[in-house]
Amino acid sequence: MQENSDLRIAFAVQKPNCANEPTGSIDITVTGGVGPYAYSWQHGPTTEDIEGISSGIYRVTVTDNLGCAALATILVQKNSLQVSAQVAQPMCANDSNGSVSLTPTNGASPYTYEWSNGTTDSRITDVPEGTYTVTVRDASGCSVTLTYTLTSPNSITIAANISNGACGADGSYKVNAVVSGGKPPYQYLWSNGQTTSMLSNLSAGTYQVQVTDANGCKAVKEVEIKPESFSWTCIIEAPINAPVCQSVGNNLSASIQNASYYSWNVTSSDNSWKITSGANAGTV
Q: What pTM was estimated for this model as a whole?
């Protein structure tokens, strides 16, 4: 004689809406035992499945054709109103192009919306950074209150580091644009058409750089390179022999400070000087 398998009851629950209206259901599946099966729900129905129920505890007894019985206790909970959101942060500092778009579920439509900025739609658009609170309510009176914070990037700031070589001679300057804020990576466009963060071989003058970040935000800085002036002193010692114009072997010597290179340029007002040796030999 073959022994029958035990009765087993599986079930699937459809929750009622958030207002706990009778919109739920229980679908049971019986295995084992010997069919057909008889169903007895504690609250009265004798069908396999039940519909139109609210939240609560439901018990069903299933009896097979041999009189074997199994009992299942089923907890049905109501749905809570759910809201999903798509949030777009402001793209640039001080921009007013942020947005929040809501999609409610598990409630009874239509839905109403009460935003802290006065909007009554499911979406707020073109708003600056800040904190926004919204209460979503469905047709049955269920509600949920949510808060969203929008944050814009920091402003793009540009610092210019200027350096030079060869004592600030024309064509020896360098400028490096140091950028912070915004959203990296950055793109550079200088007034001379260059697209790198650093310029070199520059002369004194005014240059402008425009920086664009990954969000398309822009900042502009003007850089002025001023020609550098270097102080130096020259002390010419008096000739050893005098008068200069009638002597031979007079020496003019100069003591130079704070300069690496120098040259003599000797002139006279009446072309009466005669220099007999050295780099400036001749009549001046």
A: 0.58
Dig out the tokens for 58 from the structure.
């439901």
The residue type found at 135 is T
Written as six digits, the tokens of 4 are 């029958």
CA 75 remoteness from chain centre: 46
The CATH code for residues 157-225 is 2.60.40.1080
Tokens of 204: 């004194």
Residues 6+ apart with CB under 8 A from 131: 116, 147, 148, 149, 150
Q: Which CATH number fits domain 8-76: 3.30.200, 2.40.128, 2.60.40, 1.10.287?
A: 2.60.40
The torsion angles phi and psi of 246, rounded to 5 degrees, stand at: -115, 10
Strand-pairing partners, residue 256, are 234
pLDDT tens digits for range 39-73: 999 999 999 999 999 999 999 999 999 999 999 99
Residue type for 169, please? A
The neighbour count for residue 282, using CB atoms within 10 Å, is: 10
What's CA 153's distance to the chain center, in Å? 5
Domain 82-150: assigned CATH number: 2.60.40.1080
